[in-house]
């Protein structure tokens, strides 16, 4: 299998896993079939859509029909098979960590290639990885999980910084993608196993300010 | 009346109806006058703004002041006249179905004209039709209605597919727009009359997975 | 100090204040460190990101690292120092009014320069000023404050209209920016002092219509 088609396969597997996560959240909220598929679609492709909007090109999710097809088929399958998907809990988490690694790293490179400087490219890369989950949670009326607990976005961000640094010293793309994506994957799996979390603020606040109304 | 100006009038009527729906939701949530007008504006024009962002052009809602004017005036009128608007329940639903048909079909054609392939163009067309209602519900703290019940987006999607198919065999634009928009309208009205709904998942899930945090 | 660098400093102060507002809201919702910084970042830069997406350029927030740096550092500082930030209530409100004035006015000019006509440019300018707060509230599960009470967006909108009018008669940019931004600032401060609010609808509605599902 060539490098390019390997990347495509991994990409589509990541999209399928993100779609399953979105569809499962939709089923849990008692959405109808359309709602489940729509939330699955946005969970799978929303991060990439945001990336392409920021980079200022037509979103890839609309240009290549295979992405939409994988997201829609996986979401619809999850609608009927969700008890099975639930039993695959750890499998889903492992594949999700792989998807996170790939999406953040390739998102960063796409932003760099579009002329966005490293700091911005890393932020766009991170949004590529977490954007789908954010949109999924907003559509289902939840405060996004990624903002509340566990090491998820931070693992992605370290991958973004690594790939940007490797790219700056002209590492070959397949090498830098693999190294950075594996870093994200390992960090995420260790964080899951050890229940690492980012800290929350030391004391309860005295009340919100809401200055920027 | 020329074809073009007829299309414009229908377009503006659709925008007025969507604005009334948004403003009514804003009044129900006790928003102030500005909030009601803002939610009405986004309900009316949010779908078209998303379409233009995805197609990668400056949103038409900001380029042609007549669209904003119709949305703002209708929303402000709804603010003061909302009991009357409520009494027009069926009138609003009928006009809304017409708006859905027109927006999904013209959105699909705009995406095709911008070089987006059929599958993506259909998804963008559907988002043109449902995007305003989605944003309205997010701004007022609701899980979007379109994700939960009734045949609404699916009717729009069938219209998108029809117009893309008609366009692929070089049907004249006015003909394909009319056929596809009428199809959406009829489907939506029949679904309303017969209380058709998309299915929800067969059994309660055993709990959400949240893998893509 | 040159005009340009003065504008940059005011810009960065505005971003810091908006970031503090977002971070404070995040702390109040018990988000973790990453969540607090992310909400602070979006509160500070979300309005400008929306402006640039609508104007159809790569968002400045990703292109110039200083904006991201100020937003991230301020948000992280607020995470640890939020009791102090809470005590600075009035200081924050005053700086926030200054930020609102600057962002709405410069957002309008950026849209005009990109060829968007005055009405659309004013709406984009207003969204530049209120967009960050909107996104902050959506991310933390609140109906946006700006839609519910007080004179905030309307003050910004008057500034947008003023700067567009001044620009149409070829007033020098520094003069028109200063006049319009001061107008917004004064309106907002008077509204705060006198508890001015926009009206809410006269009677309770008989129930939402939800036509645009």
Q: Describe it for me?
A:
Three copies of one chain form a homotrimer. In chain A, helix 1 (3-28) packs parallel to helix 6. The first copy, chain A, is mainly alpha-helical. The model of chain A is unreliable at 204-213 (pLDDT under 50). Chain A has eight helices and no strands. The first copy, chain A, has one domain. Chains B and C meet through helix 1, helix 2, helix 3, helix 4 and helix 5 of B and helix 2 and helix 6 of C. Chains A, B, C: InterPro entries: Gly_transporter. Chains A, B, C: Its main location: membrane. Chains A, B, C: One of its GO terms (cellular component) is plasma membrane.
- The poorly predicted ranges of chain A are 204-213
Order of helices and strands of chain A: HHHHHHHH
Q: What is the helical fraction of chain A, as a range of percent?
A: over 70%
Rg calc of chain A: 17 Å
What pair of chains forms the biggest interface?
A-B, 61 and 43 residues
What composes the largest sheet of chain A? Answer: none
Figure out the total of helices of chain A. 8
The oligomeric state of the chains shown is homotrimer
Main location (chains A, B, C): membrane
Protein name (chains A, B, C): Membrane protein
Family (chains A, B, C): Belongs to the UPF0126 family.
Keywords (chains A, B, C): Cell membrane, Membrane, Transmembrane, Transmembrane helix
Q: What's the short story on this structure?
A:
Chain A is an all-alpha fold and 213 residues long.
């Amino acid at each position: 299998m060539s490098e390019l088609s390997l990347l495509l396969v991994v990409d589509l597997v990541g999209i399928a896993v993100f779609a399953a996560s979105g569809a499962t959240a939709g089923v849990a909220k008692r959405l109808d079939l359309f709602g489940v598929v729509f939330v699955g679609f946005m969970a799978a492709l929303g991060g990439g859509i945001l990336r392409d909007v920021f980079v200022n090109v037509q979103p890839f999710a609309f240009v290549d029909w295979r992405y939409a097809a994988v997201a829609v088929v996986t979401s619809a399958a999850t609608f009927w098979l969700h008890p099975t998907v639930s039993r695959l809990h750890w499998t889903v988490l492992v594949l999700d960590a792989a998807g996170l690694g790939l999406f953040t790293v390739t998102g960063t490179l796409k932003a760099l290639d579009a002329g966005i400087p490293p700091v911005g490219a890393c932020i766009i890369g991170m949004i590529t990885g977490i954007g789908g989950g954010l949109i999924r949670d907003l559509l289902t009326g939840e405060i996004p999980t990624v903002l509340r607990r566990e090491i998820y976005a931070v693992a992605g961000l370290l991958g973004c910084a690594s790939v940007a640094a490797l790219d700056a010293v002209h590492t070959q793309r397949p090498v830098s993608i693999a190294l950075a994506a594996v870093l994200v994957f390992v960090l995420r799996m260790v964080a899951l196993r050890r229940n690492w979390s980012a800290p929350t603020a030391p004391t309860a606040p005295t009340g919100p300010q809401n200055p920027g109304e």
